[in-house]
Design goal:
This protein has 356 residues and is α/β, with parallel strands linked by helices. The protein contains twelve helices and eleven strands. It has helices spanning 42-55, 75-87, 102-114, 130-133, 171-188, 190-197, 207-227, 242-252, 259-278, 284-293, 305-313, 341-355; strands spanning 2-7, 12-18, 35-41, 60-66, 95-100, 120-125, 138-143, 146-153, 158-162, 323-330, 333-339. The strands form four sheets. Strands 4-3-5-6 form a four-stranded parallel β-sheet, sandwiched between helices. A three-stranded mixed β-sheet has the order 1-2-9, with helices on one face. The radius of gyration is 20 Å and the shape is globular. The N and C termini lie far apart (43 Å).
Length: 356
């Protein structure tokens, strides 16, 4: 078992990573909560929901289940969950447990942050992707015009990461999660990046390898979040690949491409721009080959590039109607760069020809 402690200006909480932790969850609760609401999706709850409820012992435990998929991260589902919290008689000393992937963590965390002006919640991630989203305190829901446009910063009281839940993931979810691990490598160090892209994720990944990658990825995020909790400066580096990635997700329709699949395309594009702007060689070909070998869908020819550009301009990181992107001066040295629309559109056209 590994434990990392995240210390920010507003909170301190532990991230615990190990095997079989769902069955031991009562040991890791920071307080003795009497009333607990478990929020999960239809797929995850069937696998782990009753086990988690049983592990919570003789507390009053209720549950709410939402449809699986990013489409559930909307205002109607959010409102229904608030109703469920009221019906479950949660008070300010109650606990919400987010059992699932990034969608559930964002959604349940946003419910917790706004119910009675904020009650405690913990993250129990069940996807590789959630190693990124469960740490750092960003919670929220999507708007039809943009991803994560409605939300807040609200850290959990703990993150309890049971690695055993990750081995039943479909290949698409493994791809999605590993895209964020690659991102953490690119913005932190060439050694971490090279370690990840020599891993074939189409084969079974052993617990030790997976745990090591998760711990390293979480540590990269923790180091940044601890210095910039509210994304005023360096936390923006964690958005590497996300400007185009979020636009692709929105234009494809949430759920058509997984978050990590879209971000992988965004990272490739960011590497192309980095080479153009900083005149340094970037690992574009290495990353492209690894993504191709591991089955990532990379073609963007089906998208209207001008519409993609407009969607990128609606990104919440855009400033003064200018697109600001995270680029790399070199591996491990991210920086923010604002660019003009015409040039960016010309680069999108070049990129579309490269990836097909």
């Amino acid at each position: 078992m590994e434990k990392l402690t995240i210390k920010t200006s507003t909170n301190e909480y532990d991230v615990i990573i190990g095997n079989g932790l769902i069955h031991q969850i009562s040991n890791f609760l920071p307080k003795n909560y009497a009333n607990v609401l478990v929020i999960s999706d239809s797929v995850v709850y069937e696998k782990y929901g009753e086990k988690l409820k049983a592990a919570l012992g003789d507390r009053k435990v209720s549950h709410s289940i939402v449809p699986a998929g990013e489409a559930s991260k909307n205002i109607d589902v959010y409102y229904q969950l608030l109703t469920d919290a009221i019906d479950s008689k949660l008070d300010r000393k109650s606990l919400i447990v987010a059992l699932g992937g990034g969608m559930i963590g964002d959604l349940a965390g946003f419910v917790a942050s706004t119910y009675m002006r904020g009650i405690d919640f913990i993250q129990v991630p069940t996807t590789i992707l959630a190693h990124d989203s469960s740490v750092g305190g960003k919670v929220g829901i999507n708007h039809e015009k943009g991803k994560n446009m409605i939300g807040s910063f609200y850290p959990p009281q703990a993150v309890i990461y049971d690695v055993d839940t990750l081995h039943s993931l479909p290949q698409r979810e493994i791809r999605s999660g590993y895209a964020e691990i690659v991102k953490h490598g690119l913005i932190s160090s060439s050694s971490f990046f090279n370690e990840v892209i020599t891993t074939n994720i189409t084969k079974d990944i052993s617990n030790p390898i997976l745990s090591e990658h998760l711990v390293k990825g979480i540590q990269v995020k923790a180091d940044i979040v601890q210095r910039d909790e509210k994304e005023s400066n360096i936390r923006k580096f964690l958005n590497f690949g996300h400007t185009l990635g979020h636009a692709i997700e929105a234009e494809a329709g949430y759920g058509k491409l997984s978050h990590g699949e879209a971000v992988s395309i965004g990272m490739l594009f960011a590497l192309q721009l980095s080479e153009e702007i900083f005149h340094k060689s970037m690992p574009f070909n290495q990353l492209y080959q690894w993504l191709t070998d591991n089955g990532y869908p990379l073609r963007i020819e089906q998208f209207d590039l001008e519409q993609l550009l407009l969607t990128m301009k609606r990104d919440k990181k855009a400033e003064n109607a200018k697109i600001e992107m995270v680029l790399l001066e070199e591996i491990g040295k991210p920086s923010l760069y604002t660019m003009e629309d015409d040039w960016l559109l010309s680069q999108l056209k070049i990129f579309a020809e490269k990836v097909g």
